[in-house]
Design a protein that fits this description.
The complex is a heterodimer of chains A (365) and B (256).
Chain A (H helix, E strand, L loop, with lengths): L9 E6 H11 L4 E4 L6 H10 L6 E4 L3 H13 L4 E5 L1 H6 L1 H10 L3 E7 L15 H5 L10 E3 L4 H18 L2 E7 H5 L1 E6 L25 E2 L6 H21 L3 E4 L6 E4 L2 H16 L4 E6 L1 E3 L3 H8 L4 E6 L5 H9 L4 E6 L8 H19 L1
Parallel strand pairs in A: 2-3, 2-4, 4-5, 5-7, 6-7, 11-12, 11-14, 14-15
Antiparallel strand pairs in A: 1-8, 6-13, 10-12
Chain B lengths: L4 H4 L24 H15 L5 E6 L6 H4 L3 E5 L4 H11 L4 E7 H7 L1 H9 L5 E6 L29 H4 L5 H6 L4 E8 L3 H18 L5 E7 L3 H4 L3 H15 L3 E4 L5
Parallel strand pairs in B: 1-2, 1-3, 3-4, 4-6, 5-6
Antiparallel strand pairs in B: 5-7
Classes of the chains: A alpha/beta (365), B alpha/beta (256).
Bound molecules: thiamine diphosphate (TPP).
Chain lengths: 365, 256
């Protein structure tokens, strides 16, 4: 093969989708299989321009069903592989994802979430939280779910996603939304080749004499064996929960009112926190960067001192269920959401926060 | 074999390929899957390519193919073998990749993957086991089920007006420019077995050329699904299957 120069670390102005695609090449992606869907088609487009003269393979599949199964095959063959889509396409991938999780194949997905249900709207949404975090496909399995809130994280989480997927032999998903995919920001791109790579010993690359056949499968007819596999998976998920929780805090130290939000919502809530502080309300933000594993422990800790929680999402209230689990009745948890592709404004969230503050002040009188 | 004394004086002229495991096949008596497995593994052994071969077995009676075929294998979701094989082959372009699919798998739930994989001319071999029935799930109607054939979901016979026509996938696929070699074979007689093995060999050899997909349909007995005994299933196949699915090459390199 021709020697090609690896790209050095670079700072660029890029769209979220493009940053994600560029990061994938820099992270040493061997294969990308995808199908066009708004608002993430730029990823496939970018890769079809770049990959042929850089490294790896890129293929436009005939459907998301095919794409996720190409991922299965290619990941099983030991490749570092990625697919991306938006909500309806991710729905089509759920059967394949369940197989991938069961066969313990590392791979990276990105869902550039748009508004649903159904064909819905191409506007940004966080309506796929349940699907991403609680399973989506059949059976007891988990994805590692990363929630970027900036173009920088769209790129960084590609590296992190591949790293965690390979470390745990588990599919990882970047759960972003249409706005993060489309917005342009400055991004500091890691150097190409900076993520180490080895061909895993279990990969189906052709059987040398020294070993028996490698088999990638999710079929275990005997219940005892299937339970054993399940226990193994659950133990793995527990390890992930113990070691991989990531979150960011803003103005949390003295906060009496804790807002919880991820992704795009968190950016807006950050502004709400500033507005609230100007008005003398001690608000703070906890932004989960990993949705699975979820920062239950940290939220539970904070619940000990907080007057109330306000969870903000671009859906009907999905992550709020996890916030309530974490708070575990220690204090009240409120929810503010917009749906259908509507992005809430910092001001409308502030209004809700003010009502909560009034209410809790009244309770204390 | 307990008593080897008789065998000692005899010359061993035919044995199981070492690419086939010692595990006893789980297939019903008279089923064609075992013969087809053996032929594929014989070819892999004879070509000396077991270290470069990766097989894909989707859901169907042959989902446990990896218990028998001693090469690296991937089990695929129902209908998705061609997509899985595409993923493998794109990552490992110098390896031999084959799928082994039933008619329900390849011609119903996996129709799109089949057509598009061949249309892209993926350099893989597709072995399509056509037994005109859903064997694994207990004998339901398949896309290849014959007109008036009785199955558990066409209990009065397949009525084409309501249930559609037998789908001749191999004929369809032969029209695609991505197909390099398309043939229909069977494994119900010694002569058919010999011809089938040649076709399987071709399908592997052609992968070296990077010229497109090799597609080998194998018309195969399913006595349990057809509700006939194994001996009668041979005649049943000749009388019913072969008129609809005539044996022979549909596309041969250099001839089309
Ligand atoms: C998504 C999905 N739908 C249905 C099934 C159930 N199923 C398993 S095998 C099969 C049909 C098998 O028939 P065929 O592909 O012709 O292979 P054969 O068993 O006859 O060899 C079906 C419907 C499944 N496993 N997955």
């Amino acid at each position: 093969m021709e020697k090609r120069e690896l790209k050095p670390r670079e700072v660029k102005l890029m769209k979220g989708n493009e940053a994600l695609a560029e990061a994938a090449i820099r992270a040493g992606m061997d294969g990308y299989f995808g199908y066009p869907i708004t608002p993430q088609s730029e990823i496939l487009e970018y890769l079809t321009v770049e990959v042929p003269h850089r490294s790896g393979v890129v293929l436009q599949a005939e459907s998301e069903v095919a794409a996720i199964n190409m991922i299965y095959g290619a990941a099983g063959a030991g490749g570092r592989v990625m697919t991306t889509s938006s909500s309806p396409g991710i729905s089509l991938m759920q059967e394949g994802l369940s197989y991938i999780a069961s066969a313990e194949l590392p791979c990276l997905l990105a869902n550039i979430n748009r508004g649903g249900p159904g064909l819905g709207t191409i506007q940004p949404s966080q309506g796929d939280y349940f699907q991403a975090v609680k399973g989506g496909g059949h059976g007891d399995y988990r994805l590692i779910v990363l929630a970027p809130a900036s173009v920088q994280e769209m790129a960084d989480f590609v590296f992190l996603g591949f790293e965690l997927a390979e470390k745990y032999r588990n599919p990882a998903m970047i759960l972003a939304d249409g706005a993060l995919g489309q917005m342009m920001e400055k991004v500091d791109l890691r150097a190409e080749g900076s993520l180490p790579k080895t061909v895993p010993p279990w990969a189906t690359t052709g059987k040398p004499k020294e070993r028996g056949p490698n088999v990638i499968t999710s079929l275990h007819i005997q219940s005892e064996k299937m339970e054993e596999i399940n226990l193994h998976l659950q133990a793995k998920y527990k390890t992930i929960m113990e070691n991989e929780v990531r979150y960011e805090e803003y103005q949390i130290e003295d906060a009496e009112y804790i807002l919880v939000a991820y992704g795009l919502s968190a950016r807006i809530v950050r502004k709400t926190v500033d507005l609230a502080r100007e008005k003398g309300i001690k608000a703070g933000l906890l932004r989960p960067q990993t949705l699975f594993p979820f920062p239950y422990e940290r939220i539970n800790q904070l619940a000990g001192h907080a007057k109330a929680f306000l969870d903000v999402e671009m859906n009907s209230g999905q992550m709020v269920e996890d916030v309530r689990l974490a708070v575990n009745g220690k204090t009240e948890v409120f929810f503010k959401g917009r749906m259908g592709g509507i992005i809430p404004t910092p001001e409308e969230i502030l209004e809700v926060l003010e009502q909560i503050e009034e209410k809790s002040a009244a309770l204390q009188d | 074999m307990e008593d080897n004394t008789v065998l000692e004086d005899l010359e061993l002229v035919y044995e199981k390929p070492h690419t086939l495991s010692d595990t006893a096949f789980h297939y019903c008596p008279g089923c064609g899957h075992g013969v087809a497995h053996r032929l594929i593994m014989e070819v892999v052994e004879e070509m000396g390519i077991e270290e470069q071969t990766i097989g894909v077995a989707p859901v169907g009676c042959s989902v446990f193919a990896y218990h028998y075929m001693m090469v690296d294998m991937q089990e695929a979701a129902h209908g998705r073998a061609c997509a899985v094989a595409t993923g493998i082959r794109r990552l490992l372009p110098e390896k031999y990749v084959f799928t082994y699919q039933g008619d329900g798998d390849l011609a119903a739930i996996g129709t799109a993957e089949t057509i598009h994989t061949v249309n892209r001319g993926e350099n893989i071999a597709i072995f399509f086991i056509n037994n005109a029935i859903y064997g694994m799930t207990g004998g339901q109607m398949a896309p290849t089920t014959l007109c008036h054939q009785i199955t558990s979901t066409s209990p009065y016979g397949r009525e084409v007006e309501a249930m559609g026509h037998p789908l001749k996938m191999t004929d369809l696929v032969a029209h695609l420019p991505g197909a390099y070699y398309v043939t229909r074979q069977a494994v119900h007689t010694p002569n058919a077995v010999r011809k089938c093995k040649k076709a399987i060999r071709n399908a592997f050899e052609y992968q070296k050329l990077h010229k497109g997909t090799s597609f080998v349909e194998i018309v195969s007995n399913c006595p349990s699904g057809w509700r006939v005994n194994p001996a009668d299933s041979i005649k049943w196949l000749e009388d019913n299957m072969l008129p609809m699915y005539p044996l022979g090459d549909l596309k041969v390199p250099g001839k089309n």
